[in-house]
Design a protein that fits this description.
Distance between the termini: 80 Å
Largest sheet: none
Strand content: under 5%
Order of helices and strands: HHHHHHH
Oligomer: single chain
Shape: rod-shaped
Number of helices: 7
Helix content: 55-70%
Number of strands: 0
Structural class: mainly alpha
Length: 194
């Protein structure tokens, strides 16, 4: 009998299970219903089923329902995948935005720490930006707006524009930025008002 050591058992961790919107039982039930429907369409089986008042239109409805179930299952998987992709994308944008805000805060500390320390409050210096999405949006807009009017070391107009673009791509286009493009209403809003 081979000896098991702590080194061999420690490395053998189970991988985390991936959950699907459809489980195996549901997929098996749909497949089973399809097989029954297809078997019922065979002529010799159809005559036996008609004796029990199971008609061809009923069998066809069963097969149509199977196709509908397969379509709904595919839509559920697609929706789940889309939601996961959106979460990953939002997480990457948040990380990029936080990095840019930290760069601006660092430049603000370098510029205003000795001469105008009260201005650091406008840059939320010393405040944890890893809060709720709404507070992050508010603080990011405040920091970026304040950076627009300040001459910060290392923060060029190009960098600032890139930080505004990251902020805007998160779905929260600021409305009070000097020289910022006006937000465009979604097409559905313009159709609804006409």
């Amino acid at each position: 009998m081979p000896e098991t050591t702590a080194a061999t058992t420690a490395g053998a961790t189970k991988p985390k299970r991936q959950r699907n919107p459809l489980n195996k039982v549901q997929a098996a039930e749909v497949s089973k219903a399809e097989k029954v429907g297809l078997a019922a369409k065979i002529a010799e089986n159809l005559t036996k089923l008609e004796a029990r008042r199971i008609t061809a239109p009923f069998i066809q409805q069963l097969l149509d329902d199977v196709q509908t179930a397969r379509g709904l299952g595919g839509a559920a998987v697609s929706k789940d995948t889309t939601a996961n992709s959106a979460t990953i994308n939002e997480s990457a944008l948040t990380t990029q935005l936080l990095s840019g805000l930290a760069e601006i805060q660092s430049a603000a500390r370098q510029e205003f720490y000795d001469d105008e320390p009260q201005r650091l409050k406008a840059f939320y210096s010393g405040v944890d930006l890893h809060t709720s999405r709404d507070l992050l949006t508010t603080m990011a807009q405040g920091i970026l707006t304040e950076a627009d009017g300040a001459d910060l070391p290392g923060i060029t107009a190009t960098k600032l524009t890139a930080h505004w673009a990251t902020f805007s791509s998160s779905g929260k286009l600021p409305t009070k930025r000097k020289g910022a493009p006006k937000p465009v209403a979604p097409l559905s809003a313009s159709i609804a008002t006409t």
